[in-house]
Amino acid sequence: MTVVLCPLCETRRAKRACPALGRQICAVCCGTKRLTEIPCPADCPYLASAREHPPAATVRRQRHDVGFVMQFVRDFSERQSRLFVLIATFLVRAGAERDALQPLIDEDVADAMRSLASTYETSVRGVIYEHRPASLPAQRVVSGLTPLLADAGKSGGTAFERDAAVVMRRLEQAVAEVRASDPANRRVFLELLERIFSKAAEQEAEAAAPPDEPRLIVP
Fold it and tell me: How far apart are CA 22 and CA 38, in angstroms?
């Protein structure tokens, strides 16, 4: 009997019918390239099964990610929690917009949070001074977040600025702690945010799209 090899890895036996590719592929490529290299349709039975019964390693990582975030927001007020989600969702979107020359990395996130926190802390003391980050990607984060924070802080005054500074300092600290767990990965913190907040970022982008703009629904 002729053995059909997977057209993706060309090493393992092809056993699964892939509806996206219209070909047989191996189980490993199906599991590792799903929704990244393979544009799986929503009705793919393997995709549905993976979502209903995720691997134990995935479940453990999800619990670890959520536990880490909960540790950092455990003493936040309601407004601080909302600010945390607002900033994290923005960072996920910013991280997805990969710049070939200067992609956003964790150090840029820490730099941006540090600069914004310093600006708010200075304002709380009654001095208007804009602290600027060192890198261009970090400056893009600051430029993108500034109008969102201004809108969120309408009529909030000094109390809002103080809360914003607390949240940004906490995010700066979170970047340092996550980076320490995997120093070789320059996007380990951004990847953690993506795993937790990517769905919220997608929904926010859809809500912001013009009514007549076609929308791609990603399951």
Answer: 11
Amino acid letter, 1 = M
Whole-number Å distance between alpha carbons of 15 and 28: 10
DSSP class of 13 = B
The string of DSSP codes covering 122-181 is: HHHTT-------SSHHHHHHHHHHHHHHHHHTTTTHHHHHHHHHHHHHHHHHHHHHHHHH
Q: Which residues contact 67 (CB under 8 A, 6 or more apart)?
A: none
* Residue 75 DSSP code: T
- State the DSSP string of 35-74: TTTB---TT-HHHHHHHHS--HHHHHHHHHHHHHHHHHHT
Q: How many CB atoms lie within 10 A of CB 178?
A: 19
Residue 4 to residues 9, 10, 29, 65, Cα–Cα distance (Å):
12, 9, 14, 39
Longest distance between any two alpha carbons in the chain, whole Å: 80
- What are the tokens at 100? 């070939």
Amino acid at 164: A
Which residues in the chain land under pLDDT 70?
1, 54-59, 98-100, 199-219
| β-sheet bridge partners, residue 5 | 13
pLDDT digits (tens, 9 = 90+) for 140-189: 999 999 999 999 999 899 999 999 999 999 999 999 999 998 999 999 99
